[in-house]
Amino acid sequence: MHFEDPAFTIPTGTPAPLDPQIAEFLRRMAADASQYPRRDTLSIEQGRANAEKVRLPWAQGGPQMARTVEHQVATRHGPVRVRVYYPAQRRLPGAFMYIHGGGFVLFSIDTHDRVMREYAERAGVVVVGVDYTRAPEAKFPQPLEECVDVLRWVAASAGELDIDAGQIFVGGDSAGANLSMGTALTLRDEGVPLIKGLVLNYGGFGSNLFRNSVVRYGAGEYGLSLHMMIWFRGMHIRHGKDFFDPRVDILRADLKGLPPAWLVVTECDPLHDDSIELERKLRDAGVDVASKVYPGTAHSFLEAVSIAAVAGEAFDDTARWLHAKA
């Protein structure tokens, strides 16, 4: 079977049961989101503002940092805000550059503030959050090129940032996982080995939406819907040919020569099958890859760490992987 072929079984299968704590996370999120009109019926600015309000409770609490410093980083497209988190106890000398999700359109380093503090604390590593310019103001390849430029800045500014430039990890969730892979592919093709390893949290890695997991979990009950996926993609992509660019459609790319990768895979997620296929293709390409499917989890489940034990488990698993690859 070719990776672009529709990949359905008949029937597509009964959805797996949600972890009760994740179900509560989705219930609360849906209740808060129901106060506002659908995002696609509003201006981009209002949709983003409402999304920030819905996400705010989940970004609060959690680990306290020794210090947090913001920078404006010059990129080929203009300045990008970057937030650097320094944990009280550092056990890795390098840094973990984190690229937030949100379909390339929504969210920010503010919505993902707790996610990044959890990584900093649990791994004992400096975390660098990237507030790339979102679509539709910035369509592909601008967000990707900004992330590439920020990564180069992190390496070049290692002394100022008090990190080891030889130990830089890159990762993100959802759209951020896609941008992480695009960043790694860009630097590999340029012969610039800056990335020690990749952390890929429930990413969207392909343009083929005709997959079992999209049908099984894409109707809207599990947070991310097919409706939103299409809206996000339409905002991010300017030309039809870009859907097939291997920096967007990662499953189309030649994956040889990439750094080690760790995939956090959600079971109850339209994007589940993308991660399974990416792991297979990475392994076939000779890349050092490992993954774990977290039963009963839905898209964005790491943000539920304040109430869901499985989110804490995933953070700790990633921290162990970072240490193993450092």
TrEMBL record:
One GO BP on record is: triglyceride catabolic process
Looking at the Swiss-Prot or TrEMBL record, what is one Pfam family this protein matches?
Abhydrolase_3
**What is one cellular component GO term in this UniProt entry?**
cytosol
Alphabetically ordered keywords of this record? Hydrolase
Protein name (record): Acetyl esterase
Q: Name one GO molecular function term.
A: sterol ester esterase activity
InterPro entries from the UniProt entry: AB_hydrolase_3, AB_hydrolase_fold, Lipase_GDXG_HIS_AS
Q: What range(s) does the Alpha/beta hydrolase fold-3 domain occupy? A: 97-302
